[in-house]
Design goal:
Elements lengths: L1 H23 L10 H20 L2 E10 L2 E7 L2 H5 L3 H12 L2 H6 L1 E7 L3 E3 L12 H11 L7 E5 L18 E5 L8 E9 L2 E3 L3 E11 L4 E9 L2 E10 L5 E9 L4 E9 L12 E9 L3 E7 L4 H11 L4 E7 L12 E5 L6 H10 L3 E5 L5 H7 L3 E16 L19 E10 L4 E8 L2 E13 L2 E7 L3 H12 L3 H15 L7 E4 L3 E2 L5 E7 L12 E7 L5 E5 L1 E3 L2 E6 L5 E9 L5 E8 L13 H11 L4 E2 L3 H10 L6 E10 L4 H20 L4
Parallel strand pairs: 2-3, 2-5, 5-6, 6-33, 8-14, 15-16, 15-17, 17-18, 18-23, 25-32
Antiparallel strand pairs: 1-34, 3-4, 7-9, 9-12, 10-11, 10-13, 13-14, 19-20, 19-21, 21-22, 22-23, 24-26, 26-30, 27-28, 27-31, 29-30, 31-32
Length: about 675
């Protein structure tokens, strides 16, 4: 290719010279002194024009200087203002970012963090959560292939996320400690555990973990209040050797409905922070329990998964029986789960049909589909004695109840006998089958609601793997348990469906965003996205009313309400233009997790600095950290050479040169009378 190009260039040059020679020397008798100049101008311009037509590629090398990136991570949580450090932090950031030496050596990037990472625009110090580990890991991923030390400006008190003391990052972290570093005596409620539900006139346990910071022997009082009345009281003692105490209070449910309680530990002498001395909680007192019967023909891990998921809601209880040992009456249960049916279930199926009981059928490798087909349960399967793995595909058009996609397509496949499924009853499909990556319209999970009888079918065993996978993905069983709970709630209830359903928490922490969702259907119980929903929130003390519209998000309506003060609230969700509404109430507590700390967590920040190869500094040591960063030779500028091939035709100056040469030739010929 290089030889060919050189040949073309030689030919272009010869052609240009030939044209110039033909014009100025061939059969020309009177040659002027200027003829040589005209010959050169003509030959060069013709050569350059042909060169542009050949358009050879030229290799160009660009040298780029890449500075090390210095990342400032600034804590924007409410704890900064609680420690009265907001102005100090703003001044500290301003001083660091305006340092000329730092800006010369580093490419400075600034981020703020609280619950998540944000590009630093302005600081408000109003965020309600602190996730230090997420901020560091996010920057580590962002600057993965760069030299990028991190300056972390924080009090070191984290409220959510993994422990930042043990994270693994490539970049060195230089914490700058803000907040009070003095240790004060303090007692606080570190954790409170209570079931969400209780039965009327029953006792329910409340477990409270109390902690003490100090070295003196102290005695104080722990109490629990309900509507201003003391329902539990106990004296507690702490010392230098006894800094933690667990109190278990057994309270009695006396009134049906949502009940609010406040746990409190009395202030001790010289205690500075009393914000962490109280914590509110709520318990819904109910008058009945949903009883679920699980009948099985085999032993299987799915049985335990169903029981744990269903009983995670204390309103429900599960009794498991082998079909050979069941002697009770199924009319004593609100829902019957039939696991791996065979001909031993013949009498039970007859009783279900006779009594119109609600049921859930779960099939698998041991299911006798010939028996099911004979019993005319609304579903048939032409199966063979081979099993197949079926993945799940979420159907967002499912309407029988509100269910979010919790990542079903990432769950392990379920196992069932291979065959085509057909339905003889009207049904709603929540999950479709995915066979070896191919999405089908065959149901994996479907429900029926016909003639005051509700039923469902899950075509596959191995759901215990879904519960385990849910825990691996979210570090909690909550998503899976709520999914099973939604199925049980729908199947176990014979009440007429409400066209409007509202999902809201009963207790929210101070300064939090109140998120409420709603589900509305038309008269045919089909989701109606045309509706306009509005929520009216009223403070029961001040009578201040707030009205907020709902937004349509997928197959649900959602709204977020901010800037509500602590207190008790009632709400009413209304469908505009319809006489349909739903009422409820919630409470916003005074509890703010960012105000639970008495001082900065120097120990954890020091361990973070030691592990990552950085150093810890205090807010009055800006000169020291600046000197440390500038003197560190491992933070160096990298020169990067980039070779790029460009087309000669992109060099526009050559075209202008050709025009200039031709113009000069024309003027000289005109001047000397050659034209």
């Amino acid at each position: 290719m290089q030889t060919t190009l050189i040949l073309y260039l030689i030919l272009a040059l010869l052609f240009g010279l030939a044209i110039a020679y033909f014009q100025y020397y061939f059969k020309v008798k009177n040659k002027l002194k200027i003829t040589v100049t005209l010959f050169v101008l003509k030959g060069l311009s013709i050569f350059l024009l042909i060169l542009l037509l050949i358009n050879p590629k030229i290799e160009k090398t660009n040298i780029t200087n890449i500075k090390p990136v210095l990342t400032f991570l600034v804590d924007n949580s409410n704890s900064v203002s609680f420690f009265k450090e907001d102005k100090n932090v703003e001044a500290l950031v301003k001083e660091l970012e305006s340092n000329k030496a730092i800006n010369t050596k580093f490419d400075v990037q600034k981020f703020s963090f609280a619950n998540d990472l944000q590009v630093l625009d302005s600081l408000s110090f109003t965020e309600n959560q602190t996730n230090i580990s997420n901020a560091i890991l996010s920057v580590n991923e962002l600057q993965n292939d760069k030299i990028s030390p991190i300056v972390l400006i924080t009090d070191g008190n984290q409220t959510i996320g993994q422990d930042y003391e043990f994270i693994n990052v490539k970049q060195p972290v230089y914490p700058i400690v803000i907040g009070d570093t003095t240790k004060y005596v303090d007692v606080k409620i570190s954790q409170l555990n209570v079931n969400k539900y209780s039965y009327i006139k029953n006792k329910f346990p409340v477990e409270v973990i109390l902690n003490y910071e100090g070295n003196e022997n102290v005695t104080t009082q722990f109490s629990i209040f309900n509507k201003g009345k003391t329902v539990f009281r106990k004296n507690v003692r702490f010392s230098a050797s006894k800094k933690s105490l667990t109190v278990i209070a057994n309270l009695t449910s006396t009134k049906e409905g949502l009940q609010y309680y406040t746990a409190s530990i009395s202030k001790i002498e010289n205690e500075k922070n009393i914000k962490n001395n109280t914590k509110s909680f709520s318990v819904e007192v109910i008058d009945e329990q949903t009883k679920v019967l699980l009948l099985t023909s085999v032993l299987h891990p799915d049985l335990g998964a169903f029981k744990k998921a269903i009983e995670s809601n204390k309103q429900r209880s599960v009794e498991i029986y082998n079909i050979d040992n069941f002697k009770n009456k199924i009319k004593d249960y609100q829902l019957v789960i039939l696991f791996q049916l065979n001909n031993k279930f013949n009498k039970i199926i007859d009783q279900i049909k006779e009594n119109n009981n609600n049921y859930l059928l779960v099939s698998g490798g041991s299911t006798d589909w010939n028996f099911i087909n004979q019993k005319e349960l609304g579903v048939r399967k032409n199966s063979i004695n081979e099993t197949e793995n079926y993945g799940a595909v979420f159907n967002d058009g499912f309407l029988n109840f509100l269910q979010l996609d919790i990542g079903f397509n990432n769950y392990p496949p379920l196992k069932d006998k291979f065959g085509e499924v057909s339905f003889t009853k009207e049904h709603q499909t929540l999950l479709f089958q995915n066979i070896n990556g191919l999405e089908t319209q065959q149901p994996l999970l479907a429900t029926f609601d016909i003639n005051n009888q509700k039923s469902g079918i899950l075509l596959g065993e191995g759901i215990w793997r879904w519960r385990a996978n849910s825990f691996l993905n979210t570090n909690s069983f909550e998503d899976f348990d709520k999914f099973i709970g939604n199925i049980v709630q729908f199947l176990a209830s014979n009440k007429k469906r409400n066209r409007l359903e509202v999902d809201a928490e009963s207790l929210y922490p101070a300064n939090s965003t109140i998120t409420i969702s709603a589900f509305y259907t038309d008269k045919n119980y089909q989701f109606d996205p045309r509706a306009s929903l509005e929520i009216t929130v009223t403070n029961t003390t001040t009578k201040v009313v707030t009205k907020v519209p709902f937004s349509l998000v997928n197959n649900a309506f959602k709204t977020e309400i901010e800037n509500l003060n602590s207190g008790d609230y009632t709400y009413k969700v209304t469908v505009l233009g319809q006489s349909i509404s739903k009422n409820g109430r919630f409470k916003i507590t005074d509890y703010n997790i960012e105000e639970q700390f008495t001082n900065a967590n120097i120990q954890k920040l020091q361990k973070l600095a030691d592990k990552t190869g950085g150093n810890l500094f205090y807010k009055n040591q800006v000169a020291k950290i600046t000197k440390k960063l500038l003197a560190n030779e491992s933070f160096y500028t990298v020169q990067k050479a980039t070779k790029k091939q460009v087309n000669l035709i992109d060099w526009q100056w050559i075209l202008f040169l050709v025009i200039a040469l031709l113009t000069a030739e024309w003027f000289l010929r005109k001047y000397f009378g050659k034209i």
